[in-house]
Amino acid sequence: MYYTFSSVGDLEADSQTGLDALLVGTGAELSFQSRASNLAAGNVYITDYLDTTVNTDADNVFESVLRKVDTMYNDQIFIVSP
Predict the structure, then answer these.
(1) Which of 5, 71, 75, 79 has the smallest CB count inside 10 Å?
(2) In this structure, are residues 76 and 27 in contact, taking their beta carbons and an 8 Å threshold?
(3) Cα separation of 15 and 33, whole Å?
(4) 31-48 per-position pLDDT tens digit
């Protein structure tokens, strides 16, 4: 689980704006990810575990809480505080 928060309520999950805190659950490694090689090198980052550019681009916008898991995406977004 990855936790992110904003003291000014500027997080977004798809079209839901003004959020204060989100939990982002990461699933098993997908075929296009390189967790094992990064872990072996001692360089593991949160971006190794998240699946889409929307979730990894270091801004305050994340995927929809309604997005379904499939073969290319298994992150799960949960709103903690609106």
Answers:
(1) 71
(2) yes
(3) 27
(4) 776 666 666 666 667 777
